[in-house]
Write a structure and sequence with these properties.
One of its GO terms (biological process) is protein homooligomerization. InterPro entries: BTB/POZ_dom, SHKBP1/KCTD3, SKP1/BTB/POZ_sf, T1-type_BTB, WD40/YVTN_repeat-like_dom_sf, WD40_repeat_dom_sf, WD40_rpt. Belongs to the KCTD3 family. Accessory subunit of potassium/sodium hyperpolarization-activated cyclic nucleotide-gated channel 3 (HCN3) up-regulating its cell-surface expression and current density without affecting its voltage dependence and kinetics. Helix 5 runs antiparallel to helix 6. It is built from nine helices and 43 strands. The chain has a four-stranded antiparallel sheet. A hairpin with a 2-residue loop joins strand 16 and strand 17 (about 290-295). The protein has a domain at about 5-105 and about 620-630: Potassium Channel Kv1.1, Chain A (2-Layer Sandwich), CATH 3.30.710. About 10% of the residues lie in helices and about 35% in strands. By secondary structure, the protein is mainly β.
Amino acid sequence: RVNSPVMIVWVCLFFRFSTSRQTLTWVPDSFFSSLLSGRISTLKDETGAIFIDRDPTLFAPILNFMRTKELYPRSINVHMLMHEAEFYGITPLVRKLQLCDELDRSSCGNVLFNGYLPPPVYPAKRRNRHSVAGSQLIGGRVMPPERAPVRRSNTMPPNLGNSGMLGRASTEERSCGGQSSDSGMVRIICGHHNWIAVAYAQFVVCYRVKESTGWQQVFTSPRLDWVIDRVALNAKVMGGSLGDNDKMVAVASVTEIILWAICPDGNGNEIGVFSLNVPVEALFFVGNQLIATSHTGKVGVWNAVTKHWQNQDVVPISSYDTAGSFLILGCNNGSIYYIDVQKFPLRMKDNDLLVTELYRDPTEDAITALSVYLTPKTSDSGNWIEIAYGTSSGTVRVIVQHPETVGSGPQLFQTFSVHRSPVTKIMLSEKHLISVCADNNHVRTWTVTRFRGMISTQPGSTPLTSFKILSLDDVDGHGGCSAGTEIGPYGERDDQQVFIQRVVPDTDKLYVRLSSNGKRLCEVRSVDGTSITAFMVHECEGSSRIGSRPRRYLFSGHSNGSIQMWDLTTAMEIAGKVDIRALGGPTEEELLELLDQCDLALTRTPDSTPRASTCRYTHTCTTLLWLDRS
């Protein structure tokens, strides 16, 4: 039977090692001491060799360490060997490998690490001043409840122990209607000027930065009875009419919205509780107007002057963007509509918003992504508007309206038919046109040619790059929120945009990639080893000092409730001095290491995007250990 194929396979898989009992047992309470003392059952072959179901290639350096107490890390994979050493319980080897792994890491981060905000104190419960279950007094008018059932979270909170103030809330306090959410983790981060708002499961915290004092916590909302899905921040309104209370923060959960005004002393006054009557898909400010939209075709507007909340029915909405005081809506019927929110009070008498159709797609495909570019900022002849949009069929189009053609509406400028899946994101900037489709976040970038600031037909937009940003979703729903993990593109429209790539849900690593070529600008890793649950790129204003300019930061929110900040302006400056390595997202080796953190699902979603859960798996081989009885 020597020539049997089965026998050949076994010869290839099994390795035989010989050593002494003394060599294996000098480390107390290890796997080997338990094995040889009989506390662990053994499987032996006919020769007495003990069978161990682990990778033999990794066992060889472990056995060598047990013999010599020496380690040669250059010839091994430190992470994989550490995993095996932990399994065998060889504490001295684990410690040595940890030191090797942490040789170039620090809890103070690298040169890009810019700051750390610890988890905030868990706030007191909100008093039900404006009951979300009863009628609401808004703008002097009693509004009926018209409220859909509030969605509850579907995961149990983790046992945070006393690791932070967030962990001290009882399970009962953190649960809602028998179900609960991970209260300790950061769900969403948003920024405006020199402020950021950080949303946890049931409350929101606002911070502001000053050059002399750094980041300071200025407002914490009461603890709500429902889980936050969306957050919006308004930290500065040019010519605003709210006086000292021109800073506002709003949160939404399903149909309900709560709005606070933040006072100069840091306290907050609840302005009101509003209902869109349908699930809120987007929440944001246009000037000092709070806007909520839903894909069902509802638009809600709260006006700071009239203190009035207005719901308006329009065509089902599939995308939106803002330009000045205009709200631009892309809809399922292939039309682009606009609402001038500054003219909101003028139509109060007939209780209706002025919704105007701007353009209709030639094929009437649903407008699934929108990006508006206004240029120039000031002009004697008036502004012209450029709009790039993507459709459900994957088509990308650019339309342009010049001041002299206002009466005839926007004109179709260019069409691209390179995507074969629905376009999910799009951005038209000064130098680039960027689009992303549903095929594993496939990105296409074009170079935009301009003449006197306006997009030019000669030679027009030219292809620049094509790449994917693989990002696996968490189907187990560990209390996360997709609004907090948008890949981008991020950045001002007159500057270089970046994408943020988080490959697997339970990871402490992010890849920052340039939108112009897909190359890796930098890689950031949590300084405390905690998983990254939310992220956002935001540009903060410069100080009043001469020569100061705005700086771009990556804010990462973590599973323990902390916020970590990374200086992308420095990363861009470093990249400009040296050639960026020809790397995009993770390499094949890095991807395999990341995928070891999750078990890929066998099912596929309708958009063919792979999903993942956070179950760990271990790839093992087999080892035969021969023990020298001497």
